[in-house]
Amino acid sequence: MLIATAIVLFETVALWGYIILLVATAIGEEDIWRVAGFIAMWTVALTFLSMGLWRRRKWTRAPLIVLQLLLSVIGFSLINGDAPAPGAVLVVLAVGCVGLLLVSQTREALS
Fold first, then answer.
1. Torsion angle in degrees (nearest 10) through CA of 45, 50, 55, 59
2. Which candidate, 66, 13, 15, places its Cα nearest to that of 38?
3. For the whole model, what pTM was predicted?
């Protein structure tokens, strides 16, 4: 449970940092704001879910599993694209987090 929480918090902090980087480098560009908005949507969702997981709320488990599976798909597309190393890290973290969220100890801790 603690490791899954740490993974989700790490992903959340990394996404907030990436949004700051995008905004800092996007001054004068219009198209990047759509990407930043999409990533911000994911980040806000992960922020609320990580806070709920930290507080051991039962409702956080299913949305986190769905988001982690979607992140693994993004990771696979990064592996096949031009960023194989970050994609591999994303896939490992996402699949590991899903596995940790599915074990019985996590279900018991969240109930």
1. 50
2. 15
3. 0.85
pLDDT digits (tens, 9 = 90+) for 41-72: 989 999 999 999 999 999 999 999 999 999 99
What is the distance in angstroms between the CA of the first residue and the CA of the last residue of the chain?
A: 12
The tokens of 90 are what? 């994303």
Domain count, the chain: 1
User: CA nearest 70: which of 37, 46, 100?
Assistant: 46
Residues 64-94: tens digit of each pLDDT: 999 999 999 998 998 999 889 988 999 999 9
Q: Rounded to an integer, what distance in angstroms lies between the CA atom of residue 88 and that of residue 76?
A: 7
Full domain range(s) for residue 93: 2-110
The size of the chain, in residues, is 111
CA distance 48 to 13: 12
d(CA 101, CA 65): 7
In angstroms, rounded to a whole number, what is the distance separating the alpha carbons of residues 26 and 6? 30
